[in-house]
Structures are given as structure tokens and as C-alpha cells.
Give the backbone structure.
Amino acid sequence: MTRVGRALARAAVRLHPRAWRARYEDEVADLVDESDSSLADAADLARSAWREHLNGGAPMRFEAAYRHPSAFALAAGLLLLPTLAVVALSLLGHELGLGAVAAITDPWVAWIDTVRPLDLALVVAPLAAFLVALVPLLELRIERTSGDSVVAVRVHAVTANLVVAMLAVLVGAALVGHIVTESVLRVGA
């Protein structure tokens, strides 16, 4: 098995429900480490994990995030901070008419516009922060009722994560509004 295939197979083993892993993980991990298999084996292990969850396994969730939601809220906030600063200073300088703030921030914003990766990172940051804040709150469970499979989603309400997620939505909306307004003003429509 290639190094990539072996890493994917190990990851697929970890996708299985906890009860399955408690019983089989060591044995399957040894097989993965000792075998000369292909990427198809990793795909088979991923399908096996899916089937185990369909058969009433434990809920699927991002375990590290689920156990430490505050750390993810902090990471999301730090991810959002540069975009929040640019949007807040732009609003203060232009929408509220504080010329001193605009005079300081306009050269920085003009420079950011010329560095495309930085500009793109600031635009994508609210969405990324939103996702990072919400990942620890989601729990998926596949349940069988009357022979049908039903996907149930539970959202745990952790205040810090919800606040950061809502702030990310607000900053993203303000940023999109600013980008659209600037585009319209530049085109002259």
C-alpha cells in the first residue's frame, strides 16, 4: 500500500463507530500496516464505516472539536479578526464619516487590494470562521425507523461558538455589501 493509501486506510478505520473500534481497531490497523494493499482497500474501509453507522453505530461527529468547542470558538475568532478589523475600520472611516480613520486605513486597504492572496483570504475568512465555530456543535446520527434510514442532525448550543458564528455571518454580510457597493461605484451603474 502506498504511503497515501495507508494513511487513508488508517483514517477510514477511525471513521468506524467507537464500539467497532474498541473491538477491531488494533487488528485492522495491524493488517493495514503489514499489507500491500491498494487505495481500493481504503475505500472499502470507508464504506465499512458508513455501513456500521447505518446499522446503529454511535453518532458521527468531529471528536476533537466536539470535546473542545471553546478552542474552536477561539480559533474561529482569531481567523475572523483581520477581516473584522478591516470591515470595522472601513465602516468607521467611510460610513460614519470619520476622515482621520479613512485617511489611515485607505492606503492599507488599497495595498490589500493589490495582493490577491491576502485579499482572497480576507474575503474567505468569515465563511471559514463560521465553519470552524460550528463544526464542534454538529452531531450526525443515522437512525433506522420502520425500515427507512433517517439522518438526524443535533446542534449543541455552546454560547461562544454561536456568538462567533453569528459575528462571522455579520462580518461576511458587511464585507459582501461593501464589495458590491464598491463594484457598483467603480462601474458607475
